Amino acid sequence: MMYQEDDAGSSDGLKIFLDWLERDSEAIVGQMFDAVVRATPSVVSTDSDRALLRSALTSHLPVLYQVVEAGETQPIVRLAAPAKRWAQHLAVSGVDLPELVLAYDAAGDVIVQMFAHSLRHGQPRVADATRADALEVAMDRLYRYLRAAMATAVALHLREAELLRRRTVSDLHDWIRRVLRDDVDEAAAQQRLNYSFAGHHVAFVLWSADPAGPDLDRAASYVRAATRARQLLQLRIDHRTIHGWLALEASSLTSGSLPSDMPRGVCVAFGAVHTGIVGFRSSHREALEARRVATTFRPDRLPVVHFDDVAVISMASHADDLARSIVTRRVGPLLSQPNLVLTLRVWFAESGSPTRTARALGLHTNSVIKRLERIAEQLQTELDPGDLLLRVAIELTPLVDHNPPQ
């Protein structure tokens, strides 16, 4: 005898359950199939789906028989090929994991209900004590099987879903890369990316300094909502960075249509608004450049930056030798005094207002005025908020600063 129990009643109950599994397997599969379809109709969209589900359910019964017979406390369930294919097929078909779990629960409930009915109404009649033992052992070992089988199926679903996600991201990355290097048919790219190059669109870069930080996908949705974009195309570059494009109704992004803030820990850099596939590329380059300038030269102005606000600094900073020369010549005496550099930078940003500068720095207005007087004295010039070269020089100080931002 392959099944052994310490208690003779439990041994009899186990034999009854095993005999029932073997005798009524066809009816069990039929009712499990109907129950799963009722509970999770999304898993049987086609005749092929229905055939695969029935095959998977049929393949479970011999494995269930072996696990119940062995009676291991923590059985290792090796699903048959049809059951494996079904779990993987659900992932490929876009059926969510909770649907798979619900299907397993529905099938398990059917086995319990059918066996209980067989014990009450089957022939020959089973004594009450033996019936109770049989139902107890059946439910215990069925639960062990379902727990182990479901864990295996869930792992298969998750693995297949991750492989599919990676293939999709890789394909999306390839198409976008081809668009950016002007090596793709525009109509084909629009269809594959599900994004229209017609009309107005703007590129953006989302990033986080914290690898375990906020949800960047949610932040991308926040940006879309703030700009009221018709479409969002996004590509995750790594766990800290997303490149994105927004299809807009308006021909420009005003301060009112930019997000006023971002989720904590997230920064965003925008390009300018453009049209057409050429504009798709141009806005992306501008967004990348806006991020570079923001993180290198204007860390105090994050988390939202627009290329138009840093375009002059961008152009000046690419000629490093000339930029350093401008900085040294115009603001050299201030480079060892970071508080004066910061004051002048904020003063320019506040259009030359000592009052707003003081508010931004958390200082008294008189303190700001005294700093400005020291700056003018050391630079030997009158401060003019319209002095573009001085403003560019003060923004470029990280190129030669003793303590550049990290």
From TrEMBL:
UniProt-listed PANTHER family: CARBOHYDRATE DIACID REGULATOR (PTHR33744), DNA-BINDING TRANSCRIPTIONAL ACTIVATOR ADER (PTHR33744:SF1)
Segments forming domain RsbT co-antagonist protein RsbRD N-terminal: 27-167
Domain CdaR GGDEF-like, residue spans: 188-293
PucR C-terminal helix-turn-helix domain sequence ranges: 340-396
Organism: Gordonia paraffinivorans NBRC 108238
InterPro entries named among the record's database cross-references: CdaR-like_regulators, CdaR_GGDEF, PucR_C-HTH_dom, PucR_C-HTH_sf, RsbRD_N_dom
Pfam families from the UniProt entry: GGDEF_2, HTH_30, RsbRD_N
Family of the protein in this entry: Belongs to the CdaR family.
Designated name of the protein: CdaR family transcriptional regulator
